[in-house]
Amino acid sequence: MSGRRPRGPRPPGAHCHLAACFPDADTTTVWTGPAAGSPIEFSSFEHLARTAERGLFDFLLLAEGPRPREQQGPVHDRDVAGRPEPLTVLNALAAVTERLGLAATADTTFHEPFELARRLATLDHLSGGRAAWRVAASAHASTGENFRRGDYLERAERYPRAAEFIATARRLWDSWTPDGASQPFAHQGRHFDIAGEFTVPRPPQGHPVVIRTGRSGEARECAAATADVVLAPHGTLEAGRAFYADVKGRLAKYGRTAADLKIMPGVTVVLGDTAAEAQERAATIRRRLISPQRAVLVLERLWGVDLSAYDPDGPLPEFDPVADPRLTRDLARHGDAVATAGKLRALSKEKGLSIRQTVIETSARQSFIGTPEAVAAELAEFVREGAADGFVLVPQLTPDGLDEFVDRVVPLLQERGVFRTEYEGHTLRSHLGLPVPAGDGRTTPSPGT
């Protein structure tokens, strides 16, 4: 049977959860070479999903891109192949996997609760209880042009809308009786005023698993209140422990325990037979990720002007970024553009870095670099020391970056007793050890199946 290994001793103490993220067309993954495949062909998704299930991973996460990224008008070269809709792909993957959780990123800014809750419930039924929803609240003004509502949702409104969206979706999932009868639902709030009857019986998991990010204080609070899994920013062991304690410490006020929420940083892994080889491979990947043209494009997004006349091997612009309101809204995640540009210039001058070298230094970040033994030990330490409950791996090389981790690191984690040797249940909630929500808003212990 897919995803099964010989039974071993039950892992004592801390247990590590693992997930994989289908590589996005960004500065994280190398999509070059004749064997790399395509980010829109089903074979690429199928290969990664089958590999993740072979490695006994909890779930596969697909990113979302409701609008191609643009650079002064033209679409980014890495987005020209297209960005498929995640739930459609995951419904297809449900047919070629048996145990792997299937997580879709979906935006609460431009979707509506009824249609998204219906699609997620459908995936949960088709997969036998393996659906998950990564909640996104779009920060891009240009995305709104693709939707009827249009325009842009200010930051102060994004989190309240997302919280109400999740609450409304859960009310819809709970609107059927235990014996399978549809009941009318109604919700009236600040962002949504809807009433009717839901078309899909209650999902096998009660509710699909809800995944959120938690970088800012506001995001952490929302995650503590509404999420089952938090995609934490990865950093040092000490920073991870502080983040872990902060988010878990917020749960009690919502009547939740530490076991009700899993914290899983997104990470990359570069392996080598020796530490030196791993470092050399990591440097090669960074150079492949950031081409000279790509380096200039990255700076253009921050500066807000055409920098094509600048030499990638030359110094950074001395002038400050342009205060373009539209660009500022689209790049909200960069914070203050002027301050960020100042930091980049200071780093460039301090280390004598060119434009390309500066971009490589600051954007092509890699989390764990070393031999399989060293990486397994470090991953286990993060879990043992209360810095993470597990990790979401983003393969840096396609198509076989995840295969290397599954073949070389997973067996070592199993030998350490911190990772499963077989799937014990069939649903994603059972993999994660999460409770099953009761229809009245309460929760019950997660079953083994």
From TrEMBL:
Region spans: Disordered: 430-449
Luciferase-like domain: residues covered: 35-387
Protein's UniProt keywords contain Flavoprotein: yes
InterPro entries documented for this protein: Diverse_substr_monoxygenases (IPR051260), Luciferase-like_dom (IPR011251), Luciferase-like_sf (IPR036661), NTA_MOA (IPR016215)
Keyword Oxidoreductase among record annotations: yes
Keyword annotations from UniProtKB, A to Z: Flavoprotein, FMN, Monooxygenase, Oxidoreductase
Matches recorded under Pfam families: Bac_luciferase
GO molecular function, one term: monooxygenase activity
Family: Belongs to the NtaA/SnaA/DszA monooxygenase family.
Protein name: FMN-dependent oxidoreductase (Nitrilotriacetate monooxygenase family)
Organism of derivation: Streptomyces rishiriensis
Organism placement in taxonomy: Bacteria, Bacillati, Actinomycetota, Actinomycetes, Kitasatosporales
